[in-house]
Amino acid sequence: MRITVISGGVGGARFTRGLLALLADRLPDGHGGTTAQVTVVANTGDDMWLHGVRVCPDLDTLMYTLGGAVHEGQGWGRREESTTVSTDLAAYGLGWDWFTLGDLDLATHLARTELLRRGLPLHRVVEHLAARWRPGVRLLPMSDQEVETHVVTDDGTLHFEEWWVRHRAAVPARGFVQVGVEDARPAPGVLEALADADVVVVPPSNPVVSVGTVLGVPGVRDALRATAAPVVGVSPVIGGAPVRGMADACLTAIGVATDAAAVARHHGLRATGGVLDAWLVDDADADTVGPLRAEGWRVQAAPTLMTDVPATAALAARTLALVDRMP
Amino acid sequence: MRITVISGGVGGARFTRGLLALLADRLPDGHGGTTAQVTVVANTGDDMWLHGVRVCPDLDTLMYTLGGAVHEGQGWGRREESTTVSTDLAAYGLGWDWFTLGDLDLATHLARTELLRRGLPLHRVVEHLAARWRPGVRLLPMSDQEVETHVVTDDGTLHFEEWWVRHRAAVPARGFVQVGVEDARPAPGVLEALADADVVVVPPSNPVVSVGTVLGVPGVRDALRATAAPVVGVSPVIGGAPVRGMADACLTAIGVATDAAAVARHHGLRATGGVLDAWLVDDADADTVGPLRAEGWRVQAAPTLMTDVPATAALAARTLALVDRMP
């Protein structure tokens, strides 16, 4: 069984971890893993150059989460992390005063930067780094080319991470720009992973700056629309608020209500030019099921809070079942 | 009083620390320092790009030693150092297996690299970094341009640091090449520091790849020959062996005996086309005093082992006294 997930950071990583737990249970490989092949296509629009090192927040969150190295409490970064280097950098009056950079995380960034400098394309770099963590999935960047999400505000544009982390998304966004996207191509394997999948899942990642960014890479949206596999999404909005992060600020910026049904309609039904066939909403949004069904959606309500791995595995099961792909 | 020191790493740094202790005692400024102005012109031929960060071994050794942050036991690097990042890099199959890179040291390299990327010339970068450590001297790189000492061996050439640190200078060197030196200029302040000094000191640094490299920057040798100040050197060789490091391998490569008198003759008397007026040898090499005097040298024997700061201050006193510049 081949499953392709289009993912941002924490939400997508946690969903995929639950999915792998489900698959290990239903399609075990005899070694604690699964015979199912899961490919994760990760957003790289949050990536940036910071003091000469290349930082890839979503790829690292996926790698650490699926590799068992993530700091569970914060959902990103490494467990047992220290900040010796960044503290000392600050003593020089330098460093990232708004961006937490741990020593272990820095090692990942330095390793990545070195491999990029050697001329490896990003997907090969990811392959090299992931070999250490054995995430149990094929982890692909959406593109080998640098695409950076910038945020348009009344005071000019800034890198998404600066807006998100430094300003906590409190500066009103008027829109988002994918710098470099016109020259970007899907990384090798991305289009194939969408075309050859038995099911494509859009986990509860940020619909605008994570999922939307991946969909913005030329060719990805068309591949998603063309695949024979059903495409099923899980709402990142519960009861009118994002479960995590500040997706509401992103939705507002593009004129979409922070509402489970509105997000579904934003992605759109494949039958009518969109990218999804089915949509799983939280039980708290059960009132959206009727209206969406009336519009042609396969939709169900379920518990969608990813409180732990078993709950997330159950969510993954409901997600696959919604499009009749429960193994 | 203005003193200019032409320095490599550990030897020059320790000598300068003793010199500052002497000056603080003889020419106190009332705040624990000295009214004397000491300028150190540092070798940057050992500098290198390592995984995208700029490493400047001699500048850092000077900065840490004079700033009280050096690891005394090893003579270079930071005290209370850790290796979290390099250990984690190694887990990626990357990193510097032959080059110890501590976390605190890495912070210095990242700070430097960031400032270089911002477009600051190296001497301004050094100024910024040194502001934190307050070394009590004006620390100048020999040049803002990148000059890298490469070692010629029978199997090709390699960077000096690789030969020195990785191969422990055990691969026979056939000579040294200063890559980039023809395009290098003395950093701002270097020629003035030589011209305006009351005395110029060549401390017991490596005569070939430290002192020799600084002298190789176009204009430096001429400035040294032209200055009105006396130029006095301290032999880095005691009893036919380098006190520290593997200077013998460097001397052998250029056909100079590892011998206090031979090193003096290699530098040469200013009166006959060289760069020195006077030469301080160790008591163990007292037999060289007569012959060198016969050749026109001002030369004396003294205890030259820099066992601690007081002993080094005494050595600095003997050095200045030799050219009648003892304050």
Automatic annotation (TrEMBL), chains A, B:
The keyword Ligase does not apply. Gene3D superfamilies: CofD-like domain, CofD-like domains. GO terms for molecular function: LPPG:FO 2-phospho-L-lactate transferase activity; magnesium ion binding. Its EC number is 2.7.8.28. InterPro entries: CofD, CofD-like_dom_sf, FbiA/CofD. It holds the Pfam family CofD. Keywords: Magnesium, Transferase. It is an enzyme of class 2 (transferase). This is 2-phospho-L-lactate transferase. The gene is cofD.
